Every structure is written in C-alpha cells, then in structure tokens.
Amino acid sequence: MTGKPDLLSLNALAVARGGVPVLEGVSFNLSAGDLLILRGPNGIGKTTLLRTIAGLQAPLAGRVSCVPEAIAYAAHADGLKSTLTVAENLRFWAAIHGTAGIDAALEGMNLTALAGRMAANLSAGQKRRLGLARLLVTGRPVWALDEPTVSLDRASVALFGRAVAAHLAQGGAAVIATHVDLGLDDAQVLDLAPFRAFSPAEGGRSTAFEGDFGGAFL
Amino acid sequence: MIALLLRDLRLSVRSGGGFGLGLAFFLLVATLVPFGVGAEAAVLSRIASGILWVGALLACLLSLDRIFALDHEDGSLDLLATAPIPLEGVAAVKAAAHWIVTGLPLTLIAPVLGVLLSLPGAGYAPLVLSLLLGTPALSAIGTFGAALTVGVRRGGLLMSLLVLPLYVPTLIFGAEVARRGAAGLDNSTALLMLGGITAGTMALLPFASAAAIRAGLR
User: Fold this and answer.
1) A186 versus A74: which is more confidently predicted?
2) A38, A107 contact by CB (below 8 A)
3) B78: distance to nearest CA of chain A, Å?
4) How distant is the Cα of B11 from the closest Cα of chain A, in angstroms?
5) pLDDT tens digits, residue range A20-56?
6) Would you tell me how many other CB atoms lie within 10 Å of the CB of residue B96?
7) Among 3.30.310.170, 3.40.50.300, 3.30.565.10, 3.40.50.2000, what is the CATH number of A31-60+67-192?
8) Are the beta carbons of B142 and B64 closer than 8 angstroms?
9) Contact B207/B68 with Cβ under 8 angstroms?
10) What is the pLDDT of residue B141?
C-alpha cells in the first residue's frame, strides 16, 4: 500500500444507521490493485460503511477521500428493470456512465446467450450476474460491493473472482463485504468487530455521540 | 440524461408501465360528467373547461408515485445517485418523462373530450394552450412530491396531500385561461401567470427534488 497514490482513503470514519452509531474509528487506504474484504457479524455496519464510502450517506465523523467519481457501488438490489432485456439494462448503465460497448461485460459474466432475454425471466443467480456485469460497464476504478456472491453458484463465484482479479490487474481496487472465499490470494481482510461503536454507558468513546448530528440529517 | 429519458419512456410503454392510466382516467371523468350533471348543453358548456382541467390534474396525480418509487424499490435510485449525472438532472429528466407520458397525451386528447362536454367553439384553442403550458408545472411539482416521499412505504396518500395544495395555483390560472378564452374574454393576465408558474417550477423544483432524494436515501 505504499508508494502508489491512494484511490480511496478512510480516516477515522464513524457511521450511523438510523441515527444509531454502529462503527467508529475505521481507517484504511486503498491504492491500485488492492482488495479489501470486510468481515464481521450481521448488523455490524458493513452495508452502512459501504453506503458511506459510495457517498449515499454522510459520515458521522471522519472523512472519506477518493478521486471524484471513482466509486462503483453494488448492493443487495441490482437496479434491474424487469421489462427491459439484459442487453437493454446494461446498455442503459453504460450510457449513463458514458462508456461504450457492453459485449465485454456480457462475456465476462457469461451472459452473452441471455442478452435478448427479459430481466424478469432470469433466475436469481442470473440477475446477480447481470448486476455484477453492470460494474464492468461503469469503468470506475473502485468497486464497493455488498455481498456480491449472494445466490451465485460455485462456477459463478469463480467467474466473479476472475472478474475482480482482472479489475485489480487493470489498476482498480475493491472493497467487498463478503463471507465467501473468492479464491483471491492477495486480499487483505478487515474484521470490523473491533470498530463497533459503543454507547458512552457501555464505556465506549463518546465522540461519535457528541458529533454534529445536525449535519448527519441535512 | 437522454439515455435515462429513453429508458423511462420505454419502461412506461412496456407492460405494467402505467402508460395510458392517466389517459383512461381522464376519458372516464369526461365521459361520466355529462351523466352526472345532465346532458344540458348550456350547463355543460359553462363548466366544460373547468371539468377538463380538474380531470387532467387528477389524471396527472394518479401516476406520480411511480416516478421514484419503482426506482427506489429495485435499487436503481441508489445507483443513479452514485452515477456521473447529477441528481438534479435525474429529477428534471424524470419530470420530463412524466410529462411526455401523461401531460402531453392529456393535452392532445382534451379537444376531443371538449366535444363530449359541448365546449364552445372559441374555447378549444385556449384549452389546449392552457394545458400545454400548465401540465409541465403539474409534472414538475409532482416530481417534487414524489421525491419527498421516496423512502416512505405506500407514500401515495401522503404525497397526494403534499402535492394537492401546490397544484391549486396552476389549476386556478390554467382553468381561468380556458374559461375566459371560451367566454371570449381577454385571458392574457392568467396566461402570463400560468406561464410564470410553469417556468418557475421547472427551473427551481429539480433542485428541491434532488435535495429531497438525497435526504430520503439516508
């Protein structure tokens, strides 16, 4: 992580879900080629942290700094329109992100044969693959992914692992919350359990509670 | 942004998209009113422009909750919020798409329904002009209402209550343009006010809508 410029850096980040602080003091830096796996029990705040990184939510304290428009976010919902075909869905996101060509993404996620199929007629795993193919057409360097392997079979997990590896090799970076082994050797693992925010009554740091709540709700 | 507009238009004409819902409602209102108040031409011709305006307004209201709710449910709104196009642009495009599938068809069919309500001959041009000028304001205000209630499950009722008072000035001046036109009076003051409302809402409300969405996504 040294020598290369940071694509994404978190500095003493504290995040809240529904007004309740869940994580505090999270810091890390990602540069080109880095992969960070987020681990932690359910409810620890992995999704909240990823939403904050993606800029969908304001941090309670601390800072997220990254190159502008670097983050491609993917969550539990794939953002697919069931009355559009696979190709139409992908072409839309490619147009929104100003990139051309969806063939590589279709091929990368093994969807070429399904290109003309309505998204409504896809299986859960196929929908997931389409959602992940969207990442390939965004052309963005940092992927922030929330449980990307849900409903994928073993072959598709391997396919996804290869897509992540290719992305890293091209100078990208990724933060992935997952409990599945993606088959990538050089991943760093960050266990979020030590960063859990405790209320002052439990002996936790009180800064997260006295922070600027007004800003959090703006 | 063109891609978003095309996607929204495509979604609305495909199955389950809701295209024609407002139009059918408008048709029903205009057909049922003569049965309700009696087919006396003198009465009908006096209230025709008002009935058509109220019908158009309610038809617009009918499809408002789809503007953002569907995108919010399937996760597209999160992804659009992280996309390179600004949310203000998204809100403006959504309002434009709503107008094209609702306001524009209503405007075009209104003269035909005017015949049903025995609208005086001088009233057709002012009616179409007032709807053409006024319905964009209905879409812009409605998009703002939809943005305010984006995170609220089954927020349709709340949205109607929020939007209706905002619709009143448009209705007053729009119906006034049509009524005075039909009666052969000078309607330039009402026309200018209507134009002012439309220009103002189209220019300002996309910013308010974007702010409301940002707050709603947290």
Assistant:
1) A74
2) no
3) 7
4) 7
5) 889 988 988 888 888 999 998 888 889 999 999 998 8
6) 22
7) 3.40.50.300
8) yes
9) no
10) 96
Tokens in use for A138? 């965004």
| E strand residue ranges, A75-215 | 142-146, 173-177, 188-191
> For A8-38, b where at least 16 C-beta lie within 10 A, e where not — what string?
bbbeebbbbbeeebbbbbbebbbbbbbbbbb
Other Cβ atoms closer than 10 A to A171: 12
Amino acid identity of residue B68, one-letter, is: F
Q: How many other β-carbons are positioned within 10 Å of the β-carbon of residue A174?
A: 27
Asked whether the beta carbons of residue B74 and residue A79 sit closer than 8 angstroms, the reply is yes
| Confidence grade of residue B195 (pLDDT, cut at 50, 70, 90) | very high
Burial B7-32 (b: 16+ CB within 10 A, else e): bbbbbbeeeebbbebbbebbbebbee
Helix (H/G/I), strand (E/B), else coil: B152:
coil
Residues of A in contact with B86 (CB under 8 A): none
Q: In this structure, what token pair is assigned to residue A144? A: 């922030």
User: CB–CB of A69 and B85 under 8 A?
Assistant: no
Closest CA to B139 of B36, B44, B209: B209
Q: Does A195 touch chain B (CB under 8 A)?
A: no
- Flag whether residue A70 sits within 8 Å of chain B, measured between CB atoms: no
User: B15 CA to chain A: closest CA distance, Å?
Assistant: 7
Which of A28, A37, A31 shows the shortest CA–CA distance to A185? Answer: A37
The closest of B51, B96, B74, B66 to B198, measured between CA atoms, is B96
Contacts of A218 in chain B (CB under 8 A): 215
Arithmetic mean of pLDDT over chain A: 84
State what percent of residues in chain A have pLDDT above 90: 33
What pLDDT is attached to residue B26? 93
pLDDT at A207 > cutoff 70 = no
Identify any residues that bridge with A146 across adjacent strands, giving them in sequence order. A177
| B83: nearest CA partner in chain A | A97
Q: Say how far apart CA B68 and CA A121 lie, in whole Å.
A: 23
Which range is least confidently modeled, A67-71, A122-126, B207-211?
A67-71
- Domain residue spans in chain A? 31-60+67-192
Contact state of A78 with B74 under an 8 Å Cβ cutoff: yes
SS3 string of B106-150? Answer: HHHHHHHHHHHCCCCHHHHHHHHHHHHHHHHHHHHHHHHHHHHCC
